[in-house]
């Protein structure tokens, strides 16, 4: 039995079809934990057991983890809380349930930076790595998918790219760093969940095929979209003011700012890309298949 949390999120909705396709060959049953079952595709409701509720709730994870062999763990960040509460506070009930039900394997969505000096002052990344330690301390076999920033975050800028030809971030325009497609994270998670010959605790970097700077992204988007696109860097203090203005908890907003600062200082640069850590989806391909339809449409979808 594999339990999938956050199945309607950006990663979960790409992970589920992979598991639905492959689970029968592996003699695996699937169970999903979801707040609103109506958001699940019919194929999922027909072929997987559904537990309704939040996977941050002790009673819900107690039911969900009973009889489970493996769990896909993803924390949906709650911007109304502090980073520590949003990640570790949310995960503590699950950590207890993992032990209580003897779950053998957990695959979690986390971040790059473990073991680097920057990890101690990287905001949301620091909280995510603390969550990894919390799960590791339960004694389960754990694999943290150590991810850089996502291509898919650019969907949040699809409207402004359409209307003004501009996308924004808070890092230097020429700072090259790994970036990854959500689809590649989902594929890495599916492989680990279905092939559980691993043990102990470790991180699994998912780096994408190449390092890219914001200026590189602008150039590739210009080529793929057939219209000029440029990058505008947002000052960190301006970013913090904007986030608080949107209603985010001040500590959570600061966590985003600290994460952006650490990334600009090289947080994501400490892992060597190899055939094992690289992933196949290029930014050019992602632009053509995902960003271009969003930019050319009247709306976007941006759940991360």
What is the top-level CATH class of the domain at 2-150 and 179-205? Alpha Beta
CATH topology value of the domain at 2-150 and 179-205? Rossmann fold
Uncertain ranges = 299-304
User: Average pLDDT across residues?
Assistant: 95
| Neighbour order of strands in the largest sheet | 3-2-1-4-5-6-10
Second-tier CATH architecture of the domain at 2-150 and 179-205: 3-Layer(aba) Sandwich
SSE layout and pairing:
Elements: E1 2-5, H1 12-22, E2 30-34, H2 42-47, E3 49-52, H3 58-65, E4 70-73, H4 83-100, E5 105-111, H5 124-136, E6 141-147, E7 149-150, H6 158-164, E8 166-169, E9 177-180, H7 182-194, E10 201-205, E11 211-212, H8 214-225, E12 230-233, H9 236-245, H10 250-264, H11 283-296
Parallel strand pairs: 1-2, 1-4, 2-3, 4-5, 5-6, 6-10, 7-9, 8-12
Antiparallel strand pairs: 9-11
What report would you give on this structure?
Strands 3-2-1-4-5-6-10 form a seven-stranded parallel sheet, with helices on both faces. Strands 7-9-11 form a three-stranded mixed sheet. It has a two-stranded parallel ribbon with strand order 8-12. It has a domain of 176 residues: NAD(P)-binding Rossmann-like Domain (Rossmann fold, 3-Layer(aba) Sandwich). With 304 residues, it is α/β, with parallel strands linked by helices. The chain is globular, with a radius of gyration of 19 Å. It has eleven helices and twelve strands. The chain starts with a strand and ends in an 8-residue tail after the last helix. Strand 4, helix 4 and strand 5 form a beta-alpha-beta unit.
List keywords for this structure.
single chain; 17% strand; globular; 304 residues; alpha/beta; 11 helices; Rossmann fold; seven-stranded parallel beta sheet; three-stranded mixed beta sheet; 12 strands; disordered C terminus
């Amino acid at each position: 039995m594999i339990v999938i949390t956050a199945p309607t999120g950006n990663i979960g909705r790409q992970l589920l079809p992979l598991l639905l396709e492959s689970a029968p060959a592996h003699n695996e049953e699937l169970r999903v934990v979801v707040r609103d079952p109506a958001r699940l595709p019919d194929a999922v409701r027909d072929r997987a057991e559904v537990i309704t509720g939040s996977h941050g709730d002790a009673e819900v994870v107690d039911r969900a983890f009973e009889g489970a062999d493996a769990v896909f763990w993803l924390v949906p960040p709650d911007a109304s809380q502090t980073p520590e509460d949003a990640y570790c506070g949310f995960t503590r009930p699950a950590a207890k349930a993992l032990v209580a039900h003897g779950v053998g394997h957990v695959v979690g969505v986390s971040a790059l930076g473990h073991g680097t000096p920057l990890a101690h002052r990287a905001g949301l990344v620091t909280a995510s790595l603390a969550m990894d330690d919390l799960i590791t301390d339960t004694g389960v076999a754990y694999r943290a998918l150590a991810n850089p920033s996502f291509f898919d975050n650019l969907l949040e800028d699809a409207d402004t790219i359409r209307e003004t030809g501009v996308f924004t971030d808070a890092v230097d325009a020429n700072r090259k760093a790994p970036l990854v497609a959500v689809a590649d994270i989902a594929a890495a998670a599916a492989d680990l969940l279905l092939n559980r010959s691993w043990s102990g605790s470790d991180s699994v970097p998912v780096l994408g095929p190449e390092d890219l700077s914001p200026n590189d992204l602008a150039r590739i988007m210009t080529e793929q979209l057939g219209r000029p696109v440029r990058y505008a860097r947002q000052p960190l203090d301006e970013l913090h003011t904007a986030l608080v203005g949107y209603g985010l908890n001040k500590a959570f907003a600061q966590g985003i700012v600290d994460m952006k600062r650490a990334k600009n200082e090289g947080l994501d640069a400490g892992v060597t890309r190899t055939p094992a850590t690289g992933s196949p989806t290029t930014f050019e391909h992602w632009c053509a298949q995902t960003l271009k339809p969003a930019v050319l449409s009247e709306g976007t979808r941006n759940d991360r």
